[in-house]
Write a structure and sequence with these properties.
- The complex is a heterodimer of chains A (about 325) and B (about 230).
- Chain A is mainly α and about 325 residues long.
- Chain A has 13 helices and 2 strands.
- Chain A has one domain: ABC transporter involved in vitamin B12 uptake, BtuC.
- In chain A, about 50% of the residues are buried.
- Chain B is of the alpha/beta class and about 230 residues long.
- Chain B has a domain of about 120 residues: P-loop containing nucleotide triphosphate hydrolases (Rossmann fold, 3-Layer(aba) Sandwich), CATH 3.40.50.
- In chain B, helix 3 runs parallel beside helix 6.
- The chains are: A mainly alpha (about 325), B alpha/beta (about 230).
- The interface between A and B is medium-sized, with 19 and 29 residues.
């Protein structure tokens, strides 16, 4: 068995080492795959704060991923067409400046997460799952019926957005951005898990009523976690849209929400690196099995079943020999 | 003026009335024993005090303020600490995390809790779920103290514990009474141990407070009539 800390270091080393090797070896597609793992891993890290730490099984996290994607798409679309986003009451132009796009993605995702969380967290269990799913579908169908930004066909951005000092069209440089974002997401998630807020969140997950008797408001604690979770997933959505230079309503789809949950279950619920491992495995299976059969998700289903039945702590739990996510 | 005062409390679980008029008062720094047979309304009364159950009639005053409209977590922040029945710790948090999660500024901190229960200091990094029943009870008391309450409510704190551990808990309660100005409301079935710490007593029978006064004034006839001992 490998100690979880060493395992986490190994995962980061692999995620960094493989694209560096691919860069030297001249294999840009491998770098793109690693970038996808980093970005989807970041989205999973976001969801893991709500699901793993707070026990909130959100089947609507694609909402924030999609908002991040559309924040990028809309701002970049207006910048590339030289049309203002809004003229009255104040003039708002589009932008190709990544940090500004990320800021918008994070803020809008957080605000929407606040609204969805405030309504959804009044319920629990299966009702929470259904309400978050319903919000996800609302946004999905709204995006489909929004012709100004491509409707069902989505929106293409011809040139990747800009980051000061980097050529973002060079795969390894865009990977570096995604890797740093993932690292910051992981650090934030770690700090939250170790903070008093994280402990309160864990306590609220274990027993909502009991936590009130020690003076904590479980609704507020969970809502704050849900907002942070949504904001991180929104940032991942903006990066994902930039990676593909394309946004589409499928970014809001419940399939994507389900995939994010699968990442977490595969890697290990509540484990810091669980979503990264899950995203990595999922992308690898998609790449290798997807070439063999269009029904490759059947194999993912079988692996998921195996993990749920025989490795309750996910792959990290199985490799580290610790079922419960707790350092 | 009473530190905690319940007047004419009536409460329901759905359509079933559980309390029919409970009156109770506790002075600051006092230890009050809340007694009664099983199912008579002691835990329900505590739930009303901690705002875990809404009362339909009557009033709840704490430290001079009406807390009847407060949600549970606000009552706890106002200074009401609860050690719930059944040693309810957060099982997947360590001893230290259980204590820290609940901490609020005040005299009680990790060091002081460790002084009261040295065993908790020894088990600091251990998961709460892996503690013995007695240790979990100590942790539940420690956790409530970490909220720095002005009133600590202990609901059946020694139930189901080995005699040696029970003695340890009662000794800790006695130290709390002697060494702090904390007001205590204690629910327990053990008359002898209650008598060693309680200043006053209140007996609840079928959802009504039927006797209250100095613990020393409890007669054998009264305890036999209402408690069956």
């Amino acid at each position: 068995m490998i100690r979880e800390t060493y395992l986490n270091a190994l995962i980061m080393a692999l995620l960094l080492g493989i694209p560096l090797w691919a860069h030297v070896a001249g294999q840009p597609f491998t770098i793109t795959l690693a970038t996808k793992v980093a970005i989807l891993g970041l989205a999973g890290v976001g969801l893991n704060i709500a699901l793993g730490l707070g026990g909130m099984v959100s089947l609507g996290h694609a909402v924030f991923f999609g908002i991040g994607g559309y924040a990028m798409g809309i701002l970049a679309h207006h910048a590339q067409t030289y049309t203002p986003l809004m003229e009255a009451p104040l003039l708002i132009e589009g932008t190709k400046f990544m940090p500004a796009i990320w800021l918008v993605a994070v803020v809008v995702s957080a605000v929407v997460a606040l609204a969805i969380g405030a309504l959804s967290l009044r319920t629990g269990g299966v009702y929470f799952i259904m309400i978050t799913l319903a919000f996800g579908q609302m946004f999905y169908y709204f995006a489909i019926s929004w012709p100004a930004y491509g409707g069902e066909d989505g929106l293409s951005i011809y040139v990747r957005n800009e980051f000061p000092g980097l050529n973002t069209l060079v795969p390894i440089q865009f990977f570096a951005i995604a890797f740093v974002a993932l690292s910051l997401g992981l650090i934030l998630s770690h700090l939250i898990a170790r903070s008093r807020f994280g402990l309160a969140l864990g306590a609220a997950r274990q027993n909502s009523e009991r936590v009130q008797t020690v003076g904590l408001d479980p609704m507020r604690v969970k809502l704050v976690a849900f907002v942070i979770s949504g904001a991180i997933t929104g940032l991942a959505g903006a990066l994902f849209a930039d990676l593909n230079r394309f946004v589409a309503p499928t970014m809001f789809s419940w399939h994507l929400s389900g995939e994010l949950i699968i990442f977490i279950i595969l890697g290990g619920i509540g484990r810091l690196f669980g979503p990264v491992v899950g995203a990595g495995l999922f992308i690898l299976l998609e790449h290798f099995l997807g070439g063999l059969s269009e029904y490759w998700l059947i194999y993912v289903g079988a692996i998921l079943l195996g993990v749920v039945l025989f490795a309750r702590g996910g792959l990290i739990g199985a490799l580290s020999g610790r079922e419960v996510a707790h350092d | 003026m009473a530190f905690l005062k319940l007047s004419g409390i009536e409460a329901f679980y759905g359509p079933s009335q559980a309390l029919f008029g409970v009156d109770l008062s506790l002075q600051e720094g006092e230890v009050l024993a809340l007694m009664g047979r099983n199912g008579m309304g002691k835990s329900t009364t505590i739930k009303v005090i901690c705002r875990m159950l809404r009362h339909s009639a009557g009033s709840v005053e704490f430290a001079g303020a009406d807390i009847g409209a407060l949600p549970s977590h606000r009552a706890a922040r106002a200074g009401i600490g609860l050690v719930p029945e059944g040693r309810r710790c957060f099982p997947n948090l360590t001893v230290r995390e259980n204590l820290i999660a609940a901490a609020r500024p005040g005299d009680w901190d990790l060091a002081r809790v460790a002084e009261l229960f040295p065993r908790l200091a020894e088990r600091e990094g251990q998961m709460a779920a892996s503690l013995s029943g007695g240790e979990q009870q100590m942790l539940a008391i420690g956790r409530a103290l970490m909220t720095n309450p002005r009133l600590l409510i202990l609901d059946e704190a020694t139930e189901g514990l080995a005699p040696v551990v029970r003695q340890e808990i009662w000794a800790a309660i006695a130290r709390l009474k002697a060494g702090t100005g904390l007001s205590l409301l204690v629910v327990d079935k053990s008359l002898r141990e209650l008598g060693s710490v309680a200043d006053r007593a209140c007996i609840i029978e079928r959802g009504r407070s039927v006797w209250s006064g100095a613990f020393a004034d409890l007669t054998h006839e009264t305890t036999e009539k209402y408690l069956g001992v």
